[in-house]
Fold this sequence. Notes:
The structure holds 2 protein chains of 2 kinds. Chain A is an all-beta fold. Chain A contains no helices and 11 strands. Classes of the chains: A mainly beta, B mainly beta. The interface between A and B is medium-sized, with 21 and 19 residues.
Amino acid sequence: GENVEQHPSTLSVQEGDSAVIKCTYSDSASNYFPWYKQELGKRPQLIIDIRSNVGEKKDQRIAVTLNKTAKHFSLHITETQPEDSAVYFCAASIGNQGGKLIFGQGTELSVKP
Amino acid sequence: GAVVSQHPSWVICKSGTSVKIECRSLDFQATTMFWYRQFPKQSLMLMATSNEGSKATYEQGVEKDKFLINHASLTLSTLTVTSAHPEDSSFYICSASYTDTQYFGPGTRLTVL
């Protein structure tokens, strides 16, 4: 079945450093790749997304890259701040299934001041 | 825009009782909503896809007679956990699709004693 693998499971960086989280997906029909940030006990919040017709998208300190050939996409956070500490989930749409997403396992990011 | 509410935010019930959770899209109409379950330190596990005016589609391994889903209007979907048992204790989160993007409700923490 469809699958999304996310790495690393935990990531600790110093404030100001960059953080990179990587995901691979299995469904070649996937065409939408969102990233969500979830703080403890809260709802997942969409932070950035990318569609299959572009290779990169940037929003201030956050960027996402997509390599459709290799079926992987990555989240890049620059100039990290303590408030970036949270669990980050990548997801991929499942082709022709009405917007269904399959989620990665999550990455717990800790930004140390 | 794209706000999703969920009620209740937490519930404690006795084993054997049923619990109903409501998911509402507040400022948009959602023909499709999704129900997820999330255990501590784990990813979001899709339980079912709720379509307005038709039967829900359940993921493999999810008992449709135990987790009843009703999507009676374009802004409301409900999940009823029937005959709840302690192993059903979890964080239940709904999401609603708006322009192909999923927006999440705040979640309901269910504790079954």
